[in-house]
Give the backbone structure.
Amino acid sequence: MRLISLSLCLFLLLAPLAHAAGFRITVLGARGGLLDGNLSAYLVRPENDPNGILCDAGTVLNGIQTADQAGAFSDLRLPLNTPDSRSGFILHDVIRAYLISHAHLDHVAGLVLVSPDDAQKPIYALPSVHAILNENLFGSPVWINMTDRGNEPRLGKYHDVDLAVGTPVSVPQTALQITAWPLSHGGMESTAFLIGSGRDAMLYLGDTGADSVEHSTRLHALWQAVAPLVRARRLRGIIIECSYDNARPEKLLFGHLTPRLLLEELNDLQHTAHASLRGLPVLVAHIKPSLKTGDNPEKTIAEELNAGNTQGVRFTVAEQSMSLLWK
Ligand SMILES: [Zn+2]
Ligand SMILES: [Zn+2]
């Protein structure tokens, strides 16, 4: 009897872990410019699992400290034998890899700044993104080469891993798989990452323009790729940019989205998938702050998105330190 109740206890204890899927998302940085302590960086982990990946790295250490002070990492227990502070532990042992969508500074500044005190880990990106980072940042006069590629001397702390479009890769030391899809960002190649955890999936999109403005089919190709996941109700959420409000003229978008264009793209996803998006969480990222008195781009963009939300998705404007569970 005692053996049976012990096994039952063990089963109840382990069952949630065995079925752990879904995603815990912690926003380390939310904005698309200006604010140096709050730039695009989204930590993604499977639920109940400390080991995650950082999608873009505009702000890293300030994002970790601000989010930790706000209680966003209350699930994390510091190992007894670590010399690290809580921030050090999260930087070294929770962020197991970086996924960089493109080389613009608001997506890599935090990575560069923490690199002298970071642990060994891989940087996943499309080859074009690695090439720009290695020619113009790591190993250029701007910063020492922390990677294992490009100009000597190479410190090799970061292992550059090229992603092939549409080919899933498992991220070591995590339970996550990632697949890259190219995006068109005002003449620059950016990246969407499809992230898998068990049977669940979510999308993180780096900066992107709409197909109609970019004269591109890349977003449509991404929607085609994820359509089966939408139909199977396995896509748990989308992190996507909406940099400007609808008043911004198209010729000044520089490869970004407005509420009208984001809604147009979600409409295309719905049509391509032949499935309802009702209730799908959409985290709105990369809003450009305004320095004009009275301007509130977060409020305007949220209002414009909700006013046109015929698909019934659940829009949330990303804020630093936000912690979301998608499952
Ligand atoms: Zn950006
Ligand atoms: Zn950009």
